User: Which sequence fits this backbone?
């Protein structure tokens, strides 16, 4: 009896001891777990977040026109993306580059977007004008399959680039058809009345910080995806504006601009490749006007011309991604034909075309080495423009996105 | 003068058409369809990113960064609400 | 026009140099190119028993899942030739090869479950049963 009491006591004691130990271990672990949880919580990001993105390039260019071989680059386009909340986003892109031996810095765009509902976003500030697809989607160095732009695009081009205004955009489905849309009001293009260069009379000036009239340019783009896998997009854009300044004789001159665009990407197993086709065609119509003839010192004589311009490009590329050889998997052959026609009779008249042939090597999804040969076609010699944007040339560019 | 009036009329007709279009958009559209509802995040990531550029490696960003990057792309490349949600969820499982 | 001839010659020489550079670059790619690293499931995964072994209906369900979640990278026939996989590193695995087909059902199941970037983890995305359905469908690529 005594023995058994001792045994029970011993077991109870031992039990208490073991239990106590387990309990101590348990509470220790719980404390540790709490600590870890607290540490993790402290690292949890807030709703406001900042992300630096952008792109850059560097390279070597040979221009036949001036027979020079030049290292280019030092171009740096940081894109600041700031997410204020899950509905509000602010974006700004700064463009830094060397131009004619000078360092240039520009504000490419800066705008605020607010997601109103599932299918409607409002955006205001300096925006890419949704006119076609090249400027808004394809021009960044790591996306553009060539180091240069098609004829008519870019800061000195004849097409809308960026502008200040307000935009509604979004994407939705009508039945099984996916579409996206954008409509906007911006300062819009201004008619060049020859204040700076007489030769530019009748041209449109884009991206104006201050408007020259009370009229706002109104426009939009609609894109549809006929196939459910989003491989094909067909887009139509239009823009309408009064372009003359309110206090000039051109105050009634209007302009309407149209563009059609196409984007198609497809894997073709038979040739173990992916093909990518992009195209855009633009029509710019400005009302006729009687401009003072710069060659007439009395300023009485006028001249006029049919102020219609056109520009288009079509590009195709093929990448044999699925062949066995790891080197050729990353190669891409790209070709682009572009063409521009500005009004006959204008001092800035030009009729040019150009063929870009490129061989690209993709180091990863956003890093590419481009070897491009640019062949200028007819009309280049008659143009009095500077030849950096056209003329035979050879480029080797290394572009990255980040 | 008559010419100007016709042009003004055209302009207002276009504005009216745009407003009509927008209201149709707001009222009748849906952010999804039967086909897109059946799609997975990986599929939508591939199909939509490739419209403009190579499909990005999910390893590029952290979960937090993907939230911002995808929101940026939703606006810039006109992704639907559903596409953006599914794509970002998938990217977070693969980084 | 002797000037032009000189210019042309200079241009040709330049092109030659570029081609040389390109060839140099090409010969350097084996160094640049990433070698696929081995991805081995742990030993215990081989012991997982496939609850759907020999179940043909599971193949049908697996195909549906495969189309929705895998085709974009691994391709219609599992050859690793899906359109979105072309810029990923490592490239999507060719599921028809002996290297994959030689693995146990459990190992393939484990890889779908765990993932390895840029391959996603499907543990929380689809159910265990669905993952086994995928295993059964992936087996058809070996036939």
Assistant:
């Amino acid at each position: 009896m005594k023995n058994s009491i001792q045994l029970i006591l011993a077991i109870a004691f031992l039990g208490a001891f073991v239990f106590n130990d387990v309990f101590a271990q348990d509470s220790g672990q719980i404390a540790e777990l709490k600590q870890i949880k607290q540490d993790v919580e402290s690292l949890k990001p807030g709703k406001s977040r900042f992300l630096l993105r952008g792109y850059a390039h560097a390279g070597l260019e040979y221009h036949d026109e001036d027979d020079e071989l030049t290292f280019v680059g030092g171009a740096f386009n940081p894109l600041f993306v700031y997410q204020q909340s899950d509905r509000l986003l602010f974006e700004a892109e700064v463009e830094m580059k060397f131009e004619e031996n000078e360092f240039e810095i520009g504000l490419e765009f800066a705008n605020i977007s607010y997601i109103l509902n599932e299918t409607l976003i409002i955006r205001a500030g300096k925006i890419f004008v949704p006119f076609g697809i090249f400027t808004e989607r394809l021009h960044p160095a790591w996306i553009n399959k060539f180091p240069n732009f098609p004829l008519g695009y870019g800061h000195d081009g004849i097409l809308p680039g960026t502008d200040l205004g307000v935009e509604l955009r979004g994407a939705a489905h009508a039945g099984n058809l996916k579409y996206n849309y954008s409509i906007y009001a911006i300062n819009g293009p201004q008619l060049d009345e020859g204040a700076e260069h007489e030769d530019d009379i009748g041209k449109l000036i884009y991206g104006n910080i201050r408007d020259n009239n009370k009229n706002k340019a109104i426009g939009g783009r609609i894109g549809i995806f006929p196939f459910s896998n989003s491989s094909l997009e067909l887009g139509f854009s239009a823009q309408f504006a009064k372009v003359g300044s309110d206090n000039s004789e051109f105050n009634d001159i209007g302009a309407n601009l149209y563009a059609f665009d196409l984007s198609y990407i497809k894997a073709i197993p038979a040739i173990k490749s992916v093909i990518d086709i992009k195209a855009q065609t633009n029509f710019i119509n400005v009302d006729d006007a009687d401009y003072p003839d710069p060659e007439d010192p009395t300023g009485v004589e006028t001249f006029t011309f049919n102020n219609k311009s056109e520009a288009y490009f079509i590009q195709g590329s093929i990448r044999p991604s699925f062949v066995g050889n790891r080197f050729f998997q990353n190669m891409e052959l790209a070709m682009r034909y572009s063409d521009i026609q500005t009004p006959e009779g204008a001092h800035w008249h030009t009729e040019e075309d150009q063929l870009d042939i490129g061989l690209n090597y993709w180091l990863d999804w956003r890093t590419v080495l481009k070897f491009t040969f640019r062949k200028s076609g007819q009309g280049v010699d008659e143009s009095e423009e500077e030849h950096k944007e056209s003329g035979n040339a050879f480029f080797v560019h290394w572009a990255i996105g980040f | 003068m008559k010419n100007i009036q016709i042009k003004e009329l055209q302009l207002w007709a276009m504005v009216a058409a745009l407003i009509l279009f927008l209201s149709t958009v707001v009222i009748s559209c849906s952010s999804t369809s039967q086909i897109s509802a059946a799609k997975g995040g990986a599929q939508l990531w591939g199909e939509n990113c490739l419209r403009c550029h190579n499909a990005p490696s999910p390893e590029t960003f952290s979960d937090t960064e993907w939230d911002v990057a995808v929101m940026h792309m939703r606006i810039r490349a006109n992704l639907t609400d559903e596409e953006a949600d599914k794509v970002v969820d998938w990217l977070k499982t693969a980084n | 026009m002797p000037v032009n001839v000189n210019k042309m010659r200079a241009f040709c020489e330049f092109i030659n140099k570029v081609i040389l550079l390109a060839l140099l670059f090409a010969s350097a790619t084996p160094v640049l190119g990433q070698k696929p690293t081995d991805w081995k499931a742990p030993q215990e995964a081989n012991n997982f028993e496939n609850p759907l072994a020999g179940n043909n209906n599971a193949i049908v369900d697996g195909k549906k899942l495969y189309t929705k979640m895998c085709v974009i990278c691994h391709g219609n026939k599992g050859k690793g030739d899906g359109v979105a996989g072309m810029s990923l590193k490592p490239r999507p695995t060719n599921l028809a090869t002996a290297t994959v087909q030689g693995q146990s059902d459990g190992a393939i199941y484990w890889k779908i479950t765990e993932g390895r970037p840029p391959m996603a983890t499907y543990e929380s995305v689809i159910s265990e049963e669905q993952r086994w359905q995928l295993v059964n469908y992936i087996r058809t690529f070996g036939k």
